[in-house]
Amino acid sequence: MEYRYLGKTGTKVSAFALGGSSFGSRTSEEDSIKMIDEALDFGINLIDTSNRYGNGESERIIGKAIKARRQNVILASKFGAEATHELNHSSASRRSIRAAVEQSLLRLQTDYIDLYQLHLPFEFVAYEEILLTLNDLVKEGKIHHIGTSNHLGWQMVQAQAISDRYHIQRFVSEQTPYSMINRQMEFELAEVAKQYDLSLFVYSPLSGGLLTGKYKAGQAALSDSRAATLKGYADALNPELAENEYKFKIIEKLQQLANGAGILLADMAVAFTQNHPSVTSTLWGPRTSEQLKAYIAGAELRLGTDVLDAIDAIVPPGKRIDDKEQTWSPEWMSAERRRRHVS
User: Fold this and answer.
1) Which of 3, 53, 203, 233 is flagged as catalytic?
2) Which of 53, 107, 123, 315 has a CB 3.0–4.6 Å from the CB of 60, allowing a cystine?
3) What is the pLDDT of residue 233?
4) Quick check: pTM over 0.70?
């Protein structure tokens, strides 16, 4: 396993990380703990979760699983996207952050979180408020480093400037989607990361399962596939929809490239994310032990220049071939913000 520095913190994290989004929701506690043990034994030392995953169950299970090995784990969690409609219970205000971190520490059965990440940007909470609160938590020893998730390049620059102005802790990482068919990260965010010594943790290297090789344009998805179980809710995965034909034709070209190189499409997809110099770690989000074993089996794959050039020819650098891959919609994209007021 290769280990890389988390920004300029001096902390080293594994080139692959275990994501806990399925733990306690789509994956049982027993199977989740088994996968955590397998990942740690393989050499992974970074485990990522959120207080949102499984409504807190993911954190509870991870805390239970790593209790005896806590000193060897770099534990990352997120806040700010809690699934609640209670007023002031899901935000990034000082009050909300403090409540969230205390609850996460209890579930994780630990005194500190190595990397505490803002799950989404908040238009109505100033970065000063967020960063000053997180800075206090670092001083108190409850968290060690701070990061973000699903942020844009300009937001990262703004936050860095505020940290410099107040001489306080700065974000050291950003977690963002990245795959062969969603290369938007390369257009701006990767350069921002380089300029500010930010670590990029990339998730969804298989684009929600699209790059597993099991979907064919115009054909019904297998009954046990994610596309079938989420039919009607995740149209981006549906190979039967005419609107997705172009995307699945692109995926078919990538499949042919993988076949010609004698490798699995899924392995090629994960290896592709590792090739960008700004990527610190690629998150694996297995739902089953079999899926984790498949990730591990392909972990040593490295792509040659000829394969990378061929991928560039199919999906140009910096491009995203499907806007349905957008993981969140910013406030300024609402109709009210896009239209002038008409009296």
Assistant:
1) 53
2) 107
3) 47
4) yes
